[in-house]
Amino acid sequence: MRKSFLILCLLLVYSIGFTQGLKLKNVLVIGQFDKPEDRYAIEVNLTELLTNTGIKASPSLNILKQGTSAVNLVSDSIQQLIKSKGFDTYVVVNVRGYDRNFKPSETKITLEEMLNMASLYNIYRDEATSVSFEFTFFRNESVVYRNILKCGNVSNRDSVIKRFRKKMPKLIEKSWKS
Fold first, then answer.
1. Amino acid 2: pLDDT
2. Separation of alpha carbons 15 and 150, rounded Å
3. Fewer CB within 10 Å: N-end or C-end of the chain?
């Protein structure tokens, strides 16, 4: 009886430890998009939403010069600058796809490998009715958390941004902050 109770308690503690969210305190937001206007829109909107929920956030556009590749974020000098500003977490945002239910990728990848990948999708495509965004969080150059946000019932680029702004606060509070 005691062994069963002890095993049950250990399983409960173990499961609670792995079901908790990200507990995000600070983050550098990196939009992985081909179009500069898409990158700007997502980085600025996500940074604003994170800041409104009490999480210290900054867009990568504040660190890099205009037109510079996001791959430069892994250089030693920029890494030191980012750390001096108090950031130890990075989130890379990209579009996972359109019109389907997607699950977060489970691929083990470093921040540098992720930043070297090309973006396959824009934030809106004609005839798409939904857009799924993937958020990949990195600490110490490795993935610590992934999440998907589906924005449905979209008809143009502006409606995607509107849905993104509407749905993100709930995702941040539910999964990233707790």
1. 55
2. 27
3. N
- At 38 the pLDDT is 93
What is the pTM assigned to this prediction? 0.85
The helix-helix angle for 157-171 and 36-52 (nearest 10°) equals 30
Report how far residue 145's alpha carbon sits from residue 28's, in angstroms, rounded to the nearest whole number.
Answer: 14
For residues 78 and 60, give the distance between their C-alpha atoms in angstroms, rounded to a whole number: 11
Q: Which two tokens stand for residue 107?
A: 């691929």
For strand 130-139 and strand 26-31, is the pairing parallel, antiparallel, or unpaired? unpaired
Q: What is the pLDDT of residue 15?
A: 37
Length of the chain: 178
Sequence-ordered list of residues with C-beta below 8 angstroms from that of 98, at least 6 positions apart, any chain:
121, 125, 128, 129, 130, 131, 132
Q: How many CB atoms lie within 10 A of CB 152?
A: 11
CA distance 19 to 22: 10
